[in-house]
Amino acid sequence: MLKLFLYNQDLFFSLADLSKRTKIRTALLKKELELLEEIGFTSTKKLLIAPPSNGKKKSKPKSATKGRVWSLNQDFFYLEHLRAMFHTDFLASHDELAERFKNCGKLRLVVLSGMFMQDGGTRADLLIVGDDLRRSTIEGIISTIESELGRELVYAILDTREYHYRFQTSDRFLRDIMDYPHRRLIDKLEG
Q1: Is the predicted pLDDT of residue 1 greater than 80, yes or no?
Q2: Which residues pair with 18 in a beta bridge?
Q3: pLDDT tens, 128-177?
Q4: Do 125 and 84 meet the contact criterion of CB atoms below 8 Å apart?
Q5: How many CA atoms lie within 13 A of 90 on its CB side?
Q6: Residue 120 · residue 98 · CB < 8 Å
């Protein structure tokens, strides 16, 4: 949950959204949010939330309700220390990250860039190249990583043939990844 706030510093989250993104039960989230508010890590607001429309024209409109939302307190004293700590912790676990993708097909290349390298210059955070890839498995793993990081990832999944074609034609998307700081977790490409 800390990472979610740290990597999305300008966003406000409802309790339901926090539960969905962190995969933490609502009851436990409430306790944790109280503690984070006490130490000044988060701030809270009450907003007027409109109920969803049911599409019927003649039904009586439901009234809006007040709901709480939470965001990162930009003035929290240890903010930069926490950011540095979480980034260092994640960089130390790159080998474990590569291991997660082992049952996704015949992986040829897995590249970390973008937010993994603390570089905003690239258009993608993760590039996965291989053959007979199981997209649903890969997307499930990425969803888990997103919940751990507290941030949505920009990623691309390419088959090996498409990657080679794009590489040979100096595709801008690939150049945007490879010309900036990146790390190859898996590299089994010939040449």
Answers
A1: yes
A2: none
A3: 999 999 999 999 999 888 877 777 889 999 999 999 999 999 999 999 88
A4: no
A5: 17
A6: no
Residue type, 111: V
Confirm if 128 and 109 have CB atoms less than 8 A apart.
yes
Which residues fall within 8 angstroms of residue 110, CB to CB, at 6 or more apart?
98, 101, 126, 127, 128, 129, 184, 185, 186
**Cα separation, 119 vs 128, whole angstroms:** 19
Q: Answer whether 113's CB lies under 8 Å from 177's CB.
A: yes
- What pTM value is reported for the model? 0.62
Q: Which of 1-5, 57-61, 128-132, 143-147 has the highest mean pLDDT?
A: 128-132
Sign of CA dihedral 177, 22, 81, 185: negative
Q: Is residue 123 predicted with pLDDT exceeding 70?
A: yes
- Token look-up 């919940």 returns 147
* Ranges 23-32, 41-50, 83-92, 141-150, most confident: 23-32
HEC profile of 38-69:
HHCCEEEEEEEECCCCCCCCCCCCCCCEEEEE
- Contacts (Cβ under 8 Å, ≥6 apart) of 148: 3
In sequence order, the 6+-apart residues with CB closer than 8 A to the CB of 189 are 108, 109, 129, 160, 163
Query: Which pair of structure tokens corresponds to residue 86?
Result: 């979480």
